[in-house]
Predict the structure.
Amino acid sequence: MTTREHCSWCLGTAIVLGLVACADTVIPTSRRGSSTTAAAQEGDAGAFASSLPEKAAPVAKGDRILAIDVNPAEDGDFEKAFELAKSAGMQAVSLTVSWDDIETQPSVYAAEAASLPTANVYYPLKGVKVNLIVTPFEAAGKRVPADLKALPLTDTRVVVRFKKFLDHVFSQLSAVDLNLVAIGNEVDLAIWDKKTLWGEYTEFSRQVVEYVKQKKPGVEVGVPGTLYGLTGRAKTELQKINEYTTVVFVSYYPLKEDFSVKDPGVVADEIGSLLAVYPGKKISFVETGYPSAAVLGSSEARQAEFVRNIFRQWDANASRIHTVTFAWMSDLSSSEMESFSRHYAIPDSKFKEYLRTLGMRTHPGAGRNKSAFDALKAEATARGWKG
């Protein structure tokens, strides 16, 4: 959900066939909400399993997709970070493309703004799929070209231009194996209680989702919301949008209102509540993570426990949950943290520490594995994911 002008790093650099690879990452913002619970309904086609026995054997990966948002440590070595992620079993990465970053003038596209041509070489060469997140709307607000900003999203000129923009993006990524296409990101955080905007975005995304289905048949397409929006504060609005998506896209960070962490044990009930709201649909996590900062009531051990719990719930609902994307590979530097804090206009010190310590590896030097990355490798290997 970030843009290049607000991003002090991209997903790093790597030399491939003489090209420098660089792609935007997805930056989580505030995930505020209370824990909700739901009971599994035995025999119902949409039932979910809230947990597995402690000693349950891991479920083979099958057609499930493990994704990681890769960013480098202090040394800036993206290639090293990428290969580490692949060695852990990573099959897909996220590539975020903001509309106003690329369409700088009406129907004029600056492909280099998101390094699309390089991504079109790099990811196929590496044998990795892409979670493509195209943002006309994200948590920080509207990402529409300047000449369209005053128009409602349902205006024909906006819809037609966005479809044309999608055509351009798809043409630039013609060699990429798309795992999913997301229209916007965490839209409930951006729209919140704006009823008019909900109506606009519902109709806009309906038309766009149908267009993507035609252009990319068989590829998952949807509109990401936060877990707490999907199960609580924006439940009704997001249900309307998800009537026509192929899969429910969700971002999930179990935080309290003050950005401190919830106990990792809430994973079972909170994911269960989401599955209960959407009994007939599959779910894909476009983002999930857990910070390790002590000031948030967390630790490396709790972060690792969260990772293990995600895998347990993924196993318990293997037929319902297709993709899980862990955010992110490395912790941020203080300057990167401050940049994102300014972008989202949230100066809260706990919010900053939440962002800074989401990585599964540390930031200084070449970085070191936190317990969470070791846990991810072990859990992935046990299920058949291999680098």
